[in-house]
Design goal:
The model has no long low-confidence stretch (mean pLDDT about 90). The protein has two domains: about 280 residues, FAD/NAD(P)-binding domain; about 140 residues, Beta Barrel (Elongation Factor Tu (Ef-tu), domain 3), CATH 2.40.30. The radius of gyration is 22 Å and the shape is globular. Strand 4 and strand 5 form a beta hairpin. It is an alpha/beta fold. Helix 1 runs parallel beside helix 10 and helix 2 runs parallel beside helix 12. It has twelve helices and 16 strands.
Length: about 450
């Protein structure tokens, strides 16, 4: 039985190891936790969610909703564990953070074909190997990968995580349960702010003291996970058109939309810890307590975790990887996860899935599954391997990178749904064809 090494047990690595093991390969999964931790990690379990506990939208009219549905139909470990540990969050798939990671860890450790090795890998081993060491790759491994590719100019951006507060410490006299536009169940706690409260909050937030980060500059902040203090500095109304937008939320006390709304989302199954949505930050901890307590509903908030910020590292993938996430020079060495330039939990899982099933096909001498850019999984792989991209930056899945429809469809939602249905039809055709070949 052929053995494949997988380096890193995050979302991508756990998915890759599982898919290989399910296909009969022995897998040696290397994970440096708990032997060595990064500043963003807090537990020893695999597939730890270091930022939000949300895997984002779950509707097919949303590109990440399509990506999740594709992975569900392909028997993804990560999606199965996410669905099993789901907490209510309106139209989003949010999970009990620690319950999710614990379940992934249990599944991985109990698989008969997977051997877990708790140690840091500091070199690129000979293939077959899938490297999924993530955006927080250790300094030693980062240097090894740079030397492997013969380049020293790793690309990077900064990423940030939001604080968590206890439910009991939220003042519900200034908040209410609701989902935007009353979609789904009332899963968010909405904290209203008047114009005067909002203006004072933005003023203090803009001037609050940050923790030191070597090399931090606004231009290096990834737009999809921008620290809330950076948004505040970009203009007084930036937050009101971003994470604090009140649109679709009516205060039951007044029947009107507030001037601004801070939303809180449940972070665990027990429902006693809430995430401040969109409040990724790198303020010093005392500053977070001082400024975020200016939100009326959070004036006595108990913070069980403050926000943190860290540097995310990624490869210049269009120059280095093909659309199966393999090294263009040696397909027995593949990479997956956020280090390849896919941004987001589900996207990382998708890259781990595709890298693994492609590696399995190569080792068996079988045709590599052809995920075209009509599918969300394939579109991400096309994006990170597109050699025409000059200034490569991490990308969340979106309908803009999927192949356009041949026919015109009126209305954005209808158009997106048509693209999603086409993708799922193609996926069904692929899986039926594979079953017939076996």
């Amino acid at each position: 039985m052929t053995e494949v090494k997988v380096i890193g047990a995050g979302l991508a690595g756990s998915e890759a190891a599982w898919q290989l093991a399910q296909r009969g390969f022995r897998v040696r999964l290397f994970e440096m936790k708990p032997y060595k931790m990064t500043p963003a990690h807090h537990c020893a379990d695999f597939a730890e969610l270091v930022c939000s506990n949300s895997l984002r939208g779950d509707r097919l009219e949303n590109a990440v909703g399509l990506l999740k549905e594709e992975l569900r139909r392909l028997n993804s470990l990560i999606l199965a564990c996410a669905d099993a540990t789901r907490v209510e969050a309106g139209g989003c798939l949010a999970v009990d953070r620690y319950g999710f990671s614990a379940l992934v860890t249990e599944k991985i450790r109990s698989h008969p074909n997977i051997t877990v090795v708790s140690e840091e890998v500091t070199r690129v081993p000979e293939g077959p190997v899938i490297i999924t060491t993530g955006p927080l790759t250790s300094d030693a491994m980062s240097q090894a990968i740079a030397e492997y590719f013969g380049q020293t100019d790793y690309l990077h951006f900064f990423d940030a995580a939001a604080p968590l507060v206890t439910l009991d410490s939220i003042d519900m006299n200034h908040a209410w349960y609701a989902s935007r536009y009353d979609r789904g169940t009332a899963d968010y706690i909405n904290c209203a702010m008047s114009r005067e409260e909002y203006t004072a909050f933005v003023r203090e937030l803009s001037a609050a003291e940050e923790a030191p980060v070597h090399g931090f500059e606004d231009k290096n902040v990834f737009e999809g996970c921008m620290p809330v203090e950076v948004m505040a500095r970009r203009g007084e109304d930036t937050l009101r058109y971003g994470p604090l937008k009140p649109v679709g939320l009516r205060d039951p006390k007044t029947g009107k939309e507030p001037y601004a709304v801070v939303q809180l989302r449940r972070d665990n199954a027990a429902g006693n810890i809430y995430n401040i949505v969109g409040f990724q930050t790198h303020l010093k901890f005392p500053e977070q307590k001082r400024v975020f307590s200016m939100i009326p509903a959070l004036h006595d908030a108990e913070f069980v975790r403050y926000g943190v910020m860290h540097r995310n590292t990624f490869l210049n993938s269009p120059r280095l990887l093909d659309r199966t996430y393999a090294d263009r020079r040696d397909p027995m060495v593949a990479f997956a996860g956020q280090m390849t330039g896919v941004e987001g939990y589900v996207e990382s899982c998708a890259s781990g899935y595709l890298a693994a099933v492609s590696m399995a096909a190569r080792l068996r001498g079988e045709p590599i599954p052809d995920f075209t850019n009509q599918t969300a999984i394939g579109a991400l792989a096309y994006y990170i391997s597109d050699e025409t991209i000059v200034n490569f930056q991490p990308m969340n899945v979106n309908f803009g990178i999927l192949a356009p429809l041949e026919q015109r469809v009126k209305g954005k939602a209808n158009k997106n749904l048509a693209i999603a249905n086409r993708a799922l039809a193609q996926l069904q055709s692929m899986t039926e064809g594979s079953a017939e070949e076996r």
